[in-house]
Every structure is written in C-alpha cells, then in structure tokens.
Fold this sequence. Notes:
Oligomer: single chain
Helix content: 40-55%
Shape: globular
Number of strands: 13
Mean pLDDT: 93
Strand order of the largest sheet: 10-9-8-13-11-12
Number of helices: 11
Amino acid sequence: MKVAVMTDSTAYIPVDMRNAYGIHMIPLSVNFEDETYQEEVDITTEEFYQKIKNVKELPTTSQPAIGLITEKLEELSKEFDAVVSIHLSSGISGTYQAVVSAGDMVEGIKVFAFDSEISCMAQGFYALEAAEMAKENKSPEEIMERLNEIKKTMHGYFVVDDLTNLHRGGRLNGAQAIIGSLLQVKPVLHFVDKVIVPFEKIRTRKKAINRVMGMLEEDAREGKIAKVVFVHANHEQDALDLRDEFLQKYPDTEALISYFGPVIGTHVGEGAIGVCWYYK
C-alpha cells in the first residue's frame, strides 16, 4: 500500500523540509479587512507580521474549505492508496473534522486523520515521523499507532506577551485572560484536552521562559528527549539564544528552530515563544 502524508499549514514545516520528506500541505487562511490570504501560499510569515502592525482590527482565521481538501485528496488518490493526515488541535479549529468529512466524500483513497491536539512544529513532528515511516513502507495503521505513542509524551509550552488576542479569537477562556491582564502575569500556556489553558501563572516573561526551560532540561538530563523545537513569533533571536544555551548543556539533542506563522501568530501575537519536545 502506497501511503501519502499530509498536514496543514499550521505545522509550519519549512518548504524545503516538506519537499525533502514528501509531505503534502493544505493551507489555513488569515483574513484581513481588505483580503484573505492562504498562509504559506499567498503570504509569508514576515509579510504577515509587517502587515499586522498597520491594521486597526485584528485579522480572523479560517480553516480550509472542504472543497480544497477534497480536491487535494482526489489528486493524491491518483498516486496513493491511503493518506495519513495530521492536523492542529480539533479544540481550536475545525480542520481535522473537515478532513474526516472530506475523506468520506472521496473515493479511491483511504484517509487516516490524526488530531495532533496541539499545533505548530509539535504538530510538524508528527508529520515528519509519519513521512519517515511512509518511506519505509509502513502501513497507515502502523503509522497511526506510532503517532499515538508520541502523543503520550508530547510536551508543548508557550509564553505570550499579551493574552488579549487569544481571548478575542476565542482560544482562551475570558476569565483567564482578564485575570492574567489585571495581575500582569505571564502565564505559561499549554494544551489540555485539545484546548489552550494556563499551566502556571508567573510574574515575568523571563521567569516564565525559565520555568519551561527547567522542565525541558530535567527531561534532557534523564536522556528522554527525541527532538526539541524552539518556536518564535517574529523574534528569531530569542529562539536561537534559547536553543544555543540548551545545546551548550545537551549538545547531542536534536534541536530545531520554528515559528508561529500567520494563523497561529494572529492569536498568540508577536513576541510569543514556545518550546516543544517529545520522548524517544
């Protein structure tokens, strides 16, 4: 059985890496007042952060149209028997469910949809593992089993400068956002049961990031980590500094740099920083 691997644009896997691994992508969109852009297709991350500085209203985001998904699946059906399709958390987007529905509409290809229950390069890690297994001619069932194994140890934490965007976009409970703003705390956020919730409320950005790094280093000391990624929202140097500091202590760990692109960047805001890792 020939198996394709697909994800959506919010995995933010660099295009050269997607091509090298043969990963197919369907884009989500960011909607400004004047125009809608498919991220990673019509607008780059750099263009997005430049554009958002000059708008009065926060853009909105939207999942791929079901027609776009069925079109992609029909294209894949000409070459593949099955597709493992990995998507951002169903608790913050309808993309996963749209792929499930599209899979029922397209003949000639079996669709195995996977809810990553997270986003960004943590989601990308699942796609990369799936692609490696597909190249080894593993079955879709074997790939899904491995992805569910990874899910048990996937860690993802992020710190944002301002909770307002997450609240406005409906990705964070209003009371949590208001309390955070009033107390001027920088909560460490993570996904629980597919939605974003505070992990710990911490007074300063530096202390919040140090808390996340402390958890990462604890796992690194025990030799548990398969891969780690440092994710930034238009502040690449912050991510590079954290990576370099980490690699000085744990040079044998595979450490990547990634970014919050337009769709997720709309909600977390410029300056957000995230760290994700999973176990061997």
